[in-house]
Amino acid sequence: MTAETSQTLDRGLRVLKLLADTDHGLTVTELSRKLGVNRTVVYRLLATLEQHALVRRDLGGRARVGLGVLRLGRQVHPLVREAAMPALRSLADDIGATAHLTLVDGGEALAVAVVEPTWTDYHVAYRPGLRHPLDWGAAGKAILAARRKPMAEPGYTLTRGEPETGACGAAAPLLGVTGIEGSVGVVMLTDCVPERVGPRVVDAAREIAEALR
Questions:
Q1: DSSP per position, the chain
Q2: Which PANTHER family match (predicted)?
């Protein structure tokens, strides 16, 4: 902690992060131990966070993330989309294919930003808001690959016939962005993905990750 920071706010944010990392909630005692503070401090933090609907406690006394975080989360996608648009536009026009930024939303892949190429006669229609399972399509599979090898060098995933019949996809995961799990990719109408597309998608993912840090 420095003179310019608030210890109470820091502890409150740490509580939210701890609760976000568990599916079954945490008790006051567990939070006290993890934070290294006494139970009275934890009670006060939880009471304040509950007032803002950021935390809720079940009948057993376990604290969980509250629905109030959804209101904050709704403002994240527009910010992420704005930061990603320059790189997506460059990728779409360079490759001549529809480029997209996909984030994890629950157990699904959610397209939050899509850019179509400006010069092609035809391309795949791919709209923001499209959802699909993480194990279907290059976007989701790239995310799953990064989960399996979190410390690996950036790579890319290729698919055929996913998410649309007759389309091929390439995607690379976003790496090193705290609190965001996602991928950047392209989808195109072709029999196979040209060799240069995979590395180009990796470069775009790296550029977007740097813009989000």
A1: --TTS-HHHHHHHHHHHHHHT-SS-B-HHHHHHHHTS-HHHHHHHHHHHHHTTSEEE-TT--EEE-THHHHHHTTHHHHHHHHHHHHHHHHHHHHTSEEEEEEEETTEEEEEEEE--SS-S------TT-EEETTSSHHHHHHHHHHHSTTSPP--EEEES-SSTT-EEEEEE--S-TT--EEEEEEESSSS--TTHHHHHHHHHHHHHHHH-
A2: HELIX-TURN-HELIX TRANSCRIPTIONAL REGULATOR, ICLR FAMILY, HTH-TYPE TRANSCRIPTIONAL REPRESSOR ALLR
Using one digit for the tens of pLDDT, what is the confidence trace for 164-186?
A: 778 899 999 999 887 789 999 99
Is the Cβ–Cβ distance between 139 and 112 less than 8 Å? no
Q: Which tokens hold the place of 155?
A: 């790579």
- Nearest by Cα to 179 from 125, 104, 112: 104
* CA distance linking residue 155 with residue 148, whole number of Å: 12
Q: How many residues does the chain have?
A: 213
Sole residue written with tokens 């930024």: 101
List pLDDT tens digits, range 16-70: 989 988 878 999 999 999 999 999 999 999 999 999 999 999 988 999 998 788 6
Long-range contacts of 30-39, Cβ-Cβ distance < 8 Å, separation of 24 or more: 31/63, 35/11, 37/11
